[in-house]
Amino acid sequence: MVSNHASAFVASGNSTAARIVVKADGKIKDAQGRVRYIVDLIDDYRDRPATFANVKSQIDWQKAKSSALIDDVVKLRGIELLSTTSSVGTSFTAYLTEKQVEQLASDKRVALITQDEYLRPSALWNSTSGPGTQVSSWGLQAMDISGGSSNGGATVYVLDTGVALHSDLTGYSSVDQLVASSGISPVGCYSHATHVAGIIGAADNSSGVVGVLPGVRIVSIAFGEPATSLCPNVPVQSTVSTIASALDLARTHILNSGKTAIVNLSFNYPAAFAANGTLGTKMLAVATPVPSYWPYFGALVVQSAGNDFQDACIYAYDAPSPVDGILVIGGLDDNGQMVRPLNGLGGYWNGGGIPEAGSNHNSTGNCVEMWAPSQRVLSTWSTGTQELSGTSMAAPHVAGFAARLLENNNSIVTSVDLEAAVRAKLVTVTGSNLAMPRWTNTAVTARPTVEIAQGNNRSSQGAINFSEFPDLANLRFEAVGASSCHIWVTQNYWTYLSYNTGSSQNLLAGLYDGPFAWTVTCTSAQSTQTIATASGLLRRRITMNWQANTTSTGGNWQTLNNFDTVTWSIAGNAPFDQAYTAYNADSCQVETFGFTGPTAGDQNGNDPSNPYFNPPIFPPSYQQSNPAMWDSGIGFPTSYVFATFNFGDPHASPYGFAYYDGYKWKLTCTNTDGDRLVRVMYGKGL
C-alpha cells in the first residue's frame, strides 16, 4: 500500500527520530502562539484482513485503524486535532508547542513532522473577456484537439479553492461540489478553480469557451481557509494541511468509484510537494494503483510546475518517473516556446490590483515532464470568461487530454497505464525542444517569440504606441528561439535605420526627437519568422548653453553651470555681459531678482519658499506686486544676448533700492512637447 511505501522511506532513514520540516518564515500560529504542523505517522497494516466485503467496509476499517493510531499518539499530550487523513496515509494536523514537537519527534510511530504553510495557485489574473461567441482556445489547436464531447467514461477531480457552477460546465453539478476543509464555501471567492475546470471540460455549446474534453465529469474538492478580508482579490488562504485533506478525500472517492481517475492540482510552493514530504507522499498515494484486497486503480495526478521561473523540483513533485502516475507540467506560449521573462519584466498589475503571472510564469529543470499551453488562456470565470496565464493553465490541458485518452482507449486500466498513454502522444517541438502532447502525434515547428517593451508596456499584450523623452523611453526587444533578428526603423515613412542584430537590444541608440516606428523581424534556425512592431514619438528634450563675460571670466565668454556665481569689479565699473541659447525650446522667460546674503546655501533656485527667491527684506505687499526686479514675460526668444551692462555696486542699485549683495537671474524655457528647463545664475559685485 502507498502508506507502507511512505513509512518504509521514513523509517529506513529515521529509525530513532522523525524528520522535522520547519520554515523560518510564514508560521501559522494560534492565539497561544502554538505553531501548526502536519504529523505523518507510520502505518502498520500487517494485521489487515485479506479481503473486504465492499469498498465501504475497507474505507471504514482503514479510518478506524488510522483513528486508533492517531488517538494512541496524541493521548496524554493534550493535542487538539484540527484534521486527519487516512486514505493517503495516517496523519493529523494540530497546533503544537515546542515541547510537543520534541516529544513527537522521538516517538517511533511518527514518520514526519511538517510545519503548515500558506500556499498559492500557479496563476493570477490577466485581462477579462466578456461572454459571446464560443472560443476555441489556441491551446486546443496546439494539442491538435478537435471535436468529440465526453461519453461519460472519465472523471477529473479539480483540487483547488472550489469550482463554481457555470452554464459552460455541463459535466459539473452541485452533487460534485465537495469540501475538504471546514468553514469554507464549496465555491471560493476567486475563480481560479472555475477557470481550470473550463480548460478541462467546458461544453461545446456555441457559447463561451470549449474545453479539451467538452462535458467531462468534473468533481470539485475545495480546500483552504476563510480569508474574507482579502476576497475577492485573492484566493482563500490555502495551506499544506488543507491540501493534504483534499488529497485524502480524493483518494477515498476514487477508491469508492472503482475506476481510474484524473486529479488536477494547480498549486505550487517551495519544498511543500517534495516526494519525501507530507504532500509528496500523499500525492503518490493517490497516484499509485493498489491491486491487493479491494482494487484501487489509482489516479493520474497532474500538477503545475510553478510560476517563479526557477527549478520546478523546488516548487512541485520532485521525483519524476514515467511509471509513478504523477506528471508535472511546464508552460509554453502560442509560438511553441517555453514561457520565460523577457526584457527584464516579470508579472504585471492589472486594474483590479491582482498580480498576473505575465511573462515570467513557468518553472524549468528535470522535474518538468512535459509542456502544455499556459499563456493568455481563455476559460470559464465566475461571470462569463476570462484570460489567465500560468502553469495552472498548463496542467488542466494535460488533465483534459488524459481524460480524452481514458475515454477512447479500453486498454487503459490503471493510472500508470494512463500516464504511459499520455507519454505515447508526446511530440518534441522543433525549434524549442519542448515535449508536448499532440493528439495525432504530428510534428510541429516553433516560431520565435519576440517582445518589444517600453517601460512596462509590452507588444505581447497589445500594440505599443508611446510618447516619451529619449532619455526616459527605454525601448528594447528580446526574442526566444531566434537565430537572428532584423531591425527596421522608419521616420515619417522613410527608412531611418535598417540593420541585423542578435536576440536582444536597446532600440533607441542614436535616435533623438521625432516620430519613429520600429519593426523587429526574428528568424529561427528552421526559417520560421515572427514580427513585432512599435511606434512612438520621441519628444524634444531642452538643453541649455548659458554664458557670461565679466571680470571673473577674465574678459572671455564662459559657459555657466546651474547656480554658478560670477563677479564684476565695482571699482573698475567693469562690464557684465551674458547670453543664452535654449535648444529644442519654443519660448523662454527671464526674471531678475536682487538677493542678500551668501549664494552657497541657495541650492534650489526654483523653490519659491527659498529665502533668497525674493528679497525677504521687502514687505509682503511689495513681493506680491513685484515678484521680480525685471521679468521678460513668457514668450521671450529662445536665444538672446544681454550686453553690455555696467552694474556697479549692487548696494547702490540703479533701480533705486540699495538693499542687495548681488543679482540672481532665473531662466525658464519650455516647449510644446511638455519639457521645462530652469537655470539660475548669480552675479556679485566685488
Q: Strand tally, please?
A: 42
Q: What is the end-to-end distance?
A: 99 Å
Mean pLDDT: 83
**What is the count of structural domains?**
4
Write the CATH fold name of the largest domain: Rossmann fold
Model regions low in confidence, pLDDT < 50 over at least 5 residues: 1-15, 123-131, 347-360, 600-626
Put simply, the count of helices is 12
How much helicity do the residues have? 10-25%
Write the CATH homologous superfamily of the largest domain.
Answer: Peptidase S8/S53 domain
What do these coordinates show?
This protein has 686 residues and is an alpha+beta fold. It folds into four domains: 114 residues, 2-Layer Sandwich (Alpha-Beta Plaits), CATH 3.30.70.80; 308 residues, Peptidase S8/S53 domain (Rossmann fold); 90 residues, SoxY domain (Immunoglobulin-like, Sandwich), CATH 2.60.40; 143 residues, no CATH class. Helices cover 18% and strands 32% of the residues. It has a seven-stranded parallel beta sheet, sandwiched between helices. It has a five-stranded mixed beta sheet with strand order 1-5-2-4-3, with helices on both faces. The longest helix is centred in the first third of the chain and has 20 residues. The N and C termini lie far apart (99 Å).
